[in-house]
Amino acid sequence: MKIGVSGAKGSFTEQAANQYCRENGVEGAEIVYLTFVEQVLEALESGQIDTGIFAIENSNGGVVTEYLPAIAAHRFRIERIFEMNVEHMLMVLPGTRREEVKQIVSQNQALRQCRLYIKRVWPDADVKEYVDTATAAKDLHEGTLDKDSAVVAPKSAAELYGLEILEASIQDLKFNFTTFIVAKQA
């Protein structure tokens, strides 16, 4: 089985796909990393993947608006809707000190879920939206982002890309749930 997710390796959507597999006894699934919901649904319609998983809403950040035009443009059926608790970490290149951080980078939903924290703790930092939390972590690791950047992403992204967690659980709400859709061909 091929499962397409809207996110890079180390993303919350990858975690959601792994949770879906565990809870449904799916073994040996191949995860296909796609950037946008539009790409997930295109791959589903064309038969390149068997299942698509993407976020639609967060208890703190609200509706994931990117999915709305995508679901309007594609035919699919919803197999399941489920929630997953998401916990955001602030990560940096190893050895980076707090006072060196000038920019906070992440996907817009993650930034919205941590907006009060960022405003309180990093009032002078530039905030930059990025395509995906895990992609931001990867790009920081690879040097695409400035070394004075800190990224908001899952713990798995820090582990995967060799980043140091500067601060854990920075989301504004302790219980921060994201709702995911499991999509199948119509």
Give your account of this protein's structure.
The protein has 186 residues and is an alpha/beta fold. Helices cover 32% and strands 32% of the residues. The protein has seven helices and eleven strands. It has helices spanning 12-23, 37-46, 67-73, 108-113, 115-121, 133-142, 155-161, and strands at 2-6, 30-34, 51-58, 62-63, 77-85, 89-92, 103-107, 126-130, 149-153, 164-167, 177-184. Strands 1, 2, 3, 4, 5 and 11 form a six-stranded mixed beta sheet that branches. β1 (2-6), α1 (12-23) and β2 form a beta-alpha-beta unit. α6 (133-142) packs parallel to α7 (155-161). It starts with a strand and ends with a strand.
In short:
By secondary structure, the chain is an alpha/beta fold. The chain has helices spanning 12-23, 37-46, 67-73, 108-113, 115-121, 133-142, 155-161, and strands at residues 2-6, 30-34, 51-58, 62-63, 77-85, 89-92, 103-107, 126-130, 149-153, 164-167, 177-184.
